[in-house]
Amino acid sequence: MAKKSYKSMDDFASASGVSRPTLSKYFDDPSQIKEVTRKRIEAALKKSHFEPNLFARHLNRKRTRNIGILVPTMSDPFYVQVVSLIELELREKGFWPVQISSHTRPELEAEAVRTLLSLKVAGAIVAPLGAGSRRSALERLRDAIPVVCFDNPADADLPYVGNDNAQSMAAIVQYLCRSGEPPIFLEIPHMTENAGERQAGYRATMAREGHSPLVIDCDAPPSWEFERLGYEQMQRILANGGLPGKTLLCANDRFAFGAMAAAFASGLKIGRNDACDVRIAGHDDHPLSRYTCPSLTTMAQNAPEIAAKSVELLLAHIESEDDGTTPVTNKVILEATLVMRESA
């Protein structure tokens, strides 16, 4: 027997022998309606091709079940990892993730804000571009819906979940000082606040350990192509007299990947044993860090907790907006974990 087709919720409700509001309740939460009515709807569904347009139904509500996720790029596996975890957290709690990338461009970040608002998302979890962000766009988003930032705090006074850069830099600098020569810090362009915080953490820890900090600034124009920047910076260092020391600490893992590739290309042996020419360490525990050769020593950001706390904080702000209360927490700072591998 051929299954029937229906053009609208009203048509299907009429054919099922239930009211339109009852059918809406069923698709929101089947447990809200009586068992006999639920079975009647389910029997009608089996005999039809009917699929409700849930997205359109949500847009008609005062508050939808859609949550926006905005990140600078999806070519960075760290963001892919965190966004995937955020999506799973939201799905478990009955929300629909709507993910957009700004492709590291301020005008596209502003456009993404307009898109999320037009989709009437209930809230948004955002990793801002940082120095490149248009403050007015983030303020517009903040004024319209609950927003939580992760990885990089915004200037717009928004709730934030991120890494404790002072703690993480202290841990890896202390480890490198214990296990060999004190590290030289390879800086990255200050695209986000993390860069400045990590340099400050490096300097403070070196001073506490009784060593003079040495920071090599990145000579290239600002860019999110950290692997290329790391490769070119290491090439410049080697071409201008060689390494000033045997231990290099990079501001993030992606920069370290490039530095390692350039060191290898020049014939240097990377690793922590005495026969090696240089030790190289990073920060973040990028998903590919364990697969470099040698595997990269780094500080692991707590990606699962960043995702879980971002969702928890956002839903708390949505709930507080609904009931008129004030959320208890506005900032969550998470410690990182030292991951000792073969590169340092």
TrEMBL record:
For this protein, the record's SMART domains field holds: HTH_LACI
Instruction: Give one GO term, molecular function aspect.
Output: transcription cis-regulatory region binding
Could you tell me which Pfam families the record lists for this protein? LacI (PF00356), Peripla_BP_1 (PF00532)
Q: Which InterPro entries match?
A: HTH_LacI, Lambda_DNA-bd_dom_sf, Peripla_BP/Lac1_sug-bd_dom, Peripla_BP_I
Q: Where is the HTH lacI-type domain?
A: 7-61
Kindly give the Gene3D superfamilies that the UniProt entry links to this protein: 3.40.50.2300, lambda repressor-like DNA-binding domains (1.10.260.40)
- The lineage's top-level taxon is Bacteria
Q: Where are the transmembrane segments?
A: none
Keywords attached to this entry: DNA-binding, Transcription, Transcription regulation
For this protein, the record's PROSITE patterns field holds: HTH_LACI_2
What is the name of this protein? DNA-binding LacI/PurR family transcriptional regulator
According to its UniProt entry, this protein's organism is Rhizobium esperanzae
